[in-house]
Amino acid sequence: MNTSEAGATRRVAPLSEWPIQTDLLGRLREDIASGRVPHAMLFVGEASQNRRFVNFLSQLLLCTGEPAPCGRCAACAQFESGNHPDLYVLDREGTAVKTGQVEALQERLKLRAHAGGRVVYVVHGVDEMTPVAANRLLKTLEEPWPSVIALLTAGSVRRVLPTVRSRCFLFPLPQAGSAPWDDAMPEERGAEPEGDPWFASLIEPVIQWTEILLKGAEPAVILADRLVRAAEDAEFSDVLYVLAMWLRDLMHTSAGDSRHIRFGEYRAQLKEQSSMTNVAELAKAVAVVLETRVRTRSHVAATLNAERMCVRLQEVFASVYGHRRPL
User: Fold this and answer.
1) How distant is the alpha carbon of residue 206 from its chain centre?
2) Among the listed ranges 86-90, 195-199, 297-301, which one has the minimum average pLDDT value?
3) Is the bond preceding residue 67 a cis peptide, omega within 30 degrees?
4) Where does residue 186 rank: exposed (0-12), middle (13-18), buried (19+ CB within 10 A)?
5) Chain segment 128-160, per-residue pLDDT in tens
6) Taking the mean position of all CA atoms in its chain, how far away is CA 158?
7) Are 273 and 322 a contacting pair, CB within 8 Å?
8) Where in the chain is the domain with CATH 3.40.50.300?
9) Which listed residue, 24, 43, 174, 250, has the most CB atoms within 10 A of its CB?
10) What rounded mean pLDDT belongs to the chain?
11) What is the pLDDT of residues 15-39, one digit of tens each?
């Protein structure tokens, strides 16, 4: 994965004005403001949430005014009238996006942008594309044109072709009406945690590891080694998935919300660990883990990825340690 050609810094609407607000989207806003825009992004959530957010982001990326989206420039006027020449949207023809639609898009992307700036293309429902269409789209993602931005949506990340998924920055979107601290967790396993041996083999090591993290008893490099070794018989990205779910449970417990607890059989540990921190810190920690998981799928070495993550998590939980820093 990479970013499109670096552009000039610009003023972007504050996150409070975005239709959906999560820590990950806050970092995306910072990247856009600094001119570093990912060339391909995958948004995973409810169809209505996906469309709502991608519509906003498309206008923001095409806007030529400030703060973007300004709603006043010529680009915004074209966008709002539904005829911006540098925006292409592929939607389902029948049950899925077809190969012919992707081929037509590829031909258009060979041309220069009408306004001399960015071209944005949107593909809805990449998790429901035909295999041939998905592989055709992959060619576009593997060899991106400069200043061309891809915004993809899916209802389920596990149904997205893995090679397509690995070329994108992943942004889970929360359900409509969810709590403001509730960053979405992509559902990648069909089974629930209860009784699933895959979860059972990972959750207890993750709980023990989180306790060590919150106590600040070990330096980042040792913490990272512990986590990588916990993944000895599993994919490291799977360990990060379970870690993110556990931190999310801690977040709900800290907020007094017992309705969305996934690992209810560990209520004693949830109560103990959640009492050591707070909702805001846990929300940031979930975002850090999910970002790390995206990098892991981009073939960044697990150990290096884990060390970076542990340093960032210790920064998030600095108030937990007080004046005592991890060794």
Assistant:
1) 21
2) 195-199
3) yes
4) buried
5) 998 899 999 998 898 888 789 999 999 988 889
6) 14
7) no
8) 15-172
9) 250
10) 84
11) 889 998 887 888 899 999 998 899 9
Q: Per this entry, what is the length of the chain?
A: 327
Structure tokens at 306: 């884990």
Handedness of CA 285, 288, 293, 294 (dihedral sign): positive
How far apart, in whole angstroms, are the C-alpha atoms of residue 242 and residue 198?
10
Q: Which residues contact 119 (CB under 8 A, 6 or more apart)?
A: 86, 87, 88, 109, 113, 145, 147, 148, 149
**CATH top-level class for 197-321?**
mainly alpha
Whether residue 180 contacts residue 18, with contact meaning beta carbons closer than 8 Å, is answered with no
Q: Which CATH number fits domain 15-172: 3.40.30.10, 3.20.20.140, 2.40.240.50, 3.40.50.300?
A: 3.40.50.300
pTM reported for the whole predicted model: 0.62
* CB neighbour list of residue 99: distance below 8 Å, 6 or more residues apart: 130, 132, 133, 136
Between residues 109 and 78, the one the model is more confident about: 78
pLDDT tens digits, one per residue of 81-129: 998 999 999 998 888 899 999 999 999 888 776 666 889 999 999 999 9
